[in-house]
Design goal:
Largest sheet: 2 strands, antiparallel
Distance between the termini: 21 Å
Number of strands: 2
Helix content: 10-25%
Order of helices and strands: EEH
Radius of gyration: 13 Å
Length: 52
């Protein structure tokens, strides 16, 4: 069992002007990051927080 993953894990966070995280994506590899369209939707307030 792998208890500790060493190295970097990708994450994209959309944080509003008040410092509130409005959307979050976490992945195992760079292939897991959201598309530009998903990120833009979150920036426009249409996204939801989730793990991939």
């Amino acid at each position: 069992m792998k208890l500790l993953k060493l190295g970097r894990m990708p994450a994209v966070l959309v944080v509003d002007a008040d410092g509130i995280v409005r959307a979050a994506w976490y992945g195992e590899s760079m292939r897991d990051i959201p598309s530009v369209e998903e990120t833009l939707q979150a920036l426009q307030g249409q996204g939801t927080s989730h793990d991939r």
